[in-house]
Design brief:
The chain is α/β, with parallel strands linked by helices. The chain contains 14 helices and 13 strands. A seven-stranded mixed beta sheet has the order 2-10-9-8-5-3-4, sandwiched between helices. A four-stranded mixed beta sheet has the order 1-12-13-11, with helices on both faces. One of its GO terms (molecular function) is alanine-glyoxylate transaminase activity.
Length: 384
């Protein structure tokens, strides 16, 4: 049947009807008074979602563009930075920092395991000369389903006193609490196709007062991604360059939905869906890739041993029109990932689990009781 595709991947995520209708509106002038009002409304909503009174800037970019902006606006060539790498995206930020001539030191962990905050503490405490200018890390590592301990690592950065903390919150913003002001986070980047529940195309960067101080002396080249231009424009409810007008309409719609649901309720929903998904996968006799204690609320990675991950994905896509995500880099073909981020509800998780459960016997995986996955997920959902 046409047009029944169901996205259960970490992005793009499903888009609600309110946002689709907003996307279908006739565009208006991006320098007009009516659009200024839309930007003002979105900026207020973004600050609410980011739990900050500081700047939250909108860029026409992907999450990678937002992170690149977050790195290059506050640093200079040769600056020493620590980059946490335990997956595809942590490794990407090390590549971006290296491309701009930063002095990169990586703190690594195996894919599927969390970064060790103690390694950050040791490096930061040993830096008595205060040469480390930034710590760059991914909060929710999309490639593995790991949620790194941002709060603890940030405490060590704050104890250092000099270094900025620059955070990839692309799949955690809108799924887990990222209290920017309470924790004192300096630069936080995210993207529209995740927890914001709209299509790809907008990137967001939250910037602290400490980061703006660093901006004054940073010398890396920038033009389109110069966040100073975005702040100047945002302060006037405008944008420095042509924005995707209809995506901003859609953002206004989904921010309204999110405020109606409430921050704590959003975080509780994502946590409930995470626990239900993980319980179901275990009941189906499939190994999980990330430990329970550091599992992302956005994505669950599964590492099957009795069947091939890509075969599961293929059957679920062909027979049920449900898209699951595959593994990346060296884990391509070894894991598959179930997204439960953004505009996803209990019904969606049960549907995806049911499809996976139906696919497994076709591949010879029968070491589970029929209905076990649905029963395990339903139990969690009923108790939550």
């Amino acid at each position: 049947m046409d047009d029944k595709l169901m996205l259960m991947i970490p992005g793009p995520t499903p888009v609600p009807e309110q946002a689709l209708l907003a996307l279908a509106k006739h565009p208006i002038g991006h320098r007009s008074k009516p659009f200024e009002a839309v930007i003002a409304d979105c900026t207020e909503g973004l600050k609410w979602l980011h739990q900050t009174q500081s700047d939250v800037l909108m860029l026409t970019a992907s999450g990678t563009g937002a992170m690149e902006a977050g790195i290059i606006n506050f640093l200079s060539a040769g600056d020493r930075v620590l980059v946490g790498t335990n997956g595809k995206f942590g490794e990407r930020w090390a590549e971006v920092a290296t491309a701009y001539g930063l002095n990169v030191e990586t703190i690594t962990a195996e894919w599927g395991t969390p970064l060790d905050p103690e390694q950050f503490r040791e490096k930061l405490e040993a830096d008595t000369a205060k040469e480390i200018k930034a710590v760059i890390l991914t909060h929710s590592e999309t490639s593995t389903g790991i949620l790194n301990d941002l709060e603890t690592i940030n405490r060590h950065v704050k104890a250092h006193g000099e270094a900025l903390i620059i955070v990839d919150a692309v799949t955690s913003l809108g799924a887990a609490s990222v209290p920017i002001d309470a924790w004192g986070l300096d630069v936080v980047a995210s993207g529209s196709q995740k927890g914001y529940m709209i299509p790809p195309g907008l990137g967001f960067v939250a910037v602290s007062a400490k980061a703006w101080d660093a901006y004054k002396t940073a010398t890396l080249p920038r033009y389109y991604l110069d966040l100073g231009k975005y702040k100047k424009a945002t302060d006037k409810n405008s944008s420095p360059f042509t924005p995707p007008v209809n995506l901003v309409f859609a953002l206004q719609a989904t921010l309204k939905m999110m405020r109606a649901e409430g921050l704590e309720q959003i975080f509780q929903r994502h946590d409930r869906l995470k626990r239900a998904t993980r319980a179901a996968v275990k009941a189906l006799g499939l190994p999980l890739f990330a430990p329970d204690e550091c599992a992302s609320p956005a994505i669950t990675a599964v590492a099957p041993t009795t069947v091939e991950a890509e075969q599961i994905r293929a059957i679920v896509r062909k027979q049920f029109d449900i898209a699951l995500a595959g593994g990346q880099d060296s884990y391509k073909g070894k894991i598959f990932r179930i997204g439960h981020l953004g505009f996803v509800c209990d019904r969606d998780v049960l549907t995806a689990i049911g499809a996976i459960e139906a696919a497994l016997p076709q591949l010879g995986h029968e070491n589970f009781t029929p209905g076990a996955g649905i029963a395990a997920a339903s139990k969690v959902l009923a108790e939550s």
